[in-house]
Amino acid sequence: MSRKTTLVLAILLLSSCSRLDALTPELLESAQSKWIASKPESYRLVIEMKGDRVEKEQFEVIVRGGRMETLHRNGSAVAPRSGQDYSMDGLFHMLRQELDLAGNPTLLGAPAGYSAYTMARFDEQSGRLMEYRRTVGGTANSIEIRVLEYQ
Question: By Cβ atoms counted within 10 A, which residue in 27, 34, 118, 127 is the most buried?
């Protein structure tokens, strides 16, 4: 069995065990539509991000009036920079970018012939993101985002 086939089988096994679905444009659109229809004006969100090329970090976001009001990284307040939106709307934007990158896996460091695999789980009712994972064949460039708290 080739390395590529072994990697694909491992990813399929991992996704079936983790209850994540392959992230497709249709799945993302459906989840985002549910989110737009049900999103509250204010909420608190705690997410954890980790990966092969990123240190494990935790972000706490407070959204009020539909806008990100505060952002804490690993317990410390930070002023968000342009493009650094960890609200649920910001996460949906990031997932769209991830899908675009997965369409050209060489941009993620994959050797020719390898693919990027994007998987996600969304809340059935509200459409909010619960977990996201990207794995890139032929290289160590994975990322995982988990929503730890949502209130």
Answer: 118
For the stretch 95-133, pLDDT in tens is 999 999 999 999 999 999 999 999 999 999 999 999 999
- Kindly report the CATH number assigned to the domain that includes residue 24: 2.50.20
Q: DSSP states of 46-84 as a string? A: EEEEEESSS--EEEEEEEETTEEEEEEETTEE-PPPTT-
Q: How far apart are CA 118 and CA 105, in angstroms?
A: 11
The residue count of the chain comes to 151
Pick from 9, 43, 68: nearest CA to 123: 43
pTM given for the model: 0.85
- Partnered with residue 60 across adjacent β-strands are 46, 72
State which residues form the domain around 89.
Answer: 3-150
User: How many structural domains comprise the chain?
Assistant: 1
- With 0-12 CB in 10 A as exposed, 13-18 as middle and 19+ as buried, what is 8? middle
